Amino acid sequence: MWIQNLKLNKFRNYLSQNIEFNENINIFLGDNAQGKTNLLESIYYLANAKSFKSFRDKDLIMFNEKEMSLDGIIRKNQSFKNVHISVNENKKDIFVNEIKYDKNKDLKSLFKLVLFTPEDLNIIKDGPNFRRDLIDDIIISVNFSYKAVKKDFDKILSQRNKLLKNQRSKYFKTELMAFDQQIIRLNYKIYRFREKYISLINTYANKNHLNLTENKENLTIIYKPNIRAKSMEEYGEKFSKNISDDLKYFRTTSGSQRDEIDIIINGKDTKKFGSQGQQRSAILNIKLANVNLIENTSQDKAIILFDDVFSELDEKRSNFLLENLGEFQTIITATNTKSLDGVSSSKIRKIKDGRIK
């Protein structure tokens, strides 16, 4: 699966732009604030009908304009999908081969994307919620049913926490019991999903990391669930033991929202002891594990988007990346020509002021 053509109309700083993509490596060079990230955002939006940068669709419309549109041709072997998305201040329309799609989730079945941005370094540097989100996003990319489980859990967790702050409610105990039945079931599902997929992600990520480091470094993802259990009943028993803390602190103190995920290189926690280069490489290889997992589960190839990747990797790692991603469509933005000596000029284009040459 790959994106063959994309037309941008009044999207961010692109007034009108038609782009033909190579089936493998595509590199877009330009200074900052010229439209490199906006281009990747448009591709991401074509696949997800939402942005990775903005919560509001109308923010994607060019300044002083009232509507934007994207038209893309997605190709798989000899079949084609024509995707059209238009957004104005009041609504969003999605069409695939001239058939209207009502929900964003329908669009996700067309093609898969894996995105790497400089902000992904925060996944290691910041709190465990970033690492949980990374794993959850990877799981959803290959098993969409998990999204509904997470959505239901987040909703019940929020409602339970609100109830714990209102313990004088007449029906407090009855309502708490009802919430607990639901949250234990959802917690156990999340625990089992994460346990299964972290094991798979770890296998691919370590293989990628060994290749990148010439077998000098082992990358390990360690799952530390807040509650470990062999059955839902056991999970419920352990969860219920913390009810006194829940009542004391007016919030849910145990469960999957407190799971920890450590990223380890050669036995050392990368957050505490990893160099900046090791942290970058670890996240990169986990993202590439997502690509491997998509291919393994769907027999299709994800499209890889790298935003300003060369500024985050040294020349050795950049060269390795270019040499080993030829079988996937890879779209890279960069601010310089570092590591591009061996890349054909037909794969490199320049972006300036929202125009691609």
TrEMBL record:
Q: Give the primary localization class.
A: cytoplasm
Give binding positions for ATP. 30-37
Does Oxidoreductase appear among the keywords? no
Q: Which InterPro entries match?
A: DNA-binding_RecF, P-loop_NTPase, RecF/RecN/SMC_N, RecF_2
> GO cellular component annotations, sorted alphabetically?
cytoplasm
Key word Cytoplasm present in the record?
yes
Q: What Pfam families would the database entry show?
A: SMC_N
Superkingdom of source: Bacteria
MF terms (GO), sorted A to Z: ATP binding; single-stranded DNA binding
**Which keywords does the record carry?**
ATP-binding, Cytoplasm, DNA damage, DNA repair, DNA replication, DNA-binding, Nucleotide-binding, SOS response
Q: Which Gene Ontology BP terms does the record give?
A: DNA replication; DNA synthesis involved in DNA repair; double-strand break repair; SOS response
Q: Indicate the segments forming the RecF/RecN/SMC N-terminal domain, all copies.
A: 3-343
Q: Where in the cell is it found?
A: Cytoplasm
Q: Which family does it belong to?
A: Belongs to the RecF family.
Instruction: State the function annotated in the UniProt record.
Output: The RecF protein is involved in DNA metabolism; it is required for DNA replication and normal SOS inducibility. RecF binds preferentially to single-stranded, linear DNA. It also seems to bind ATP.
Q: Which NCBIfam families match?
A: recf
| Name this polypeptide is given | DNA replication and repair protein RecF
Species for this entry: Anaerococcus vaginalis ATCC 51170
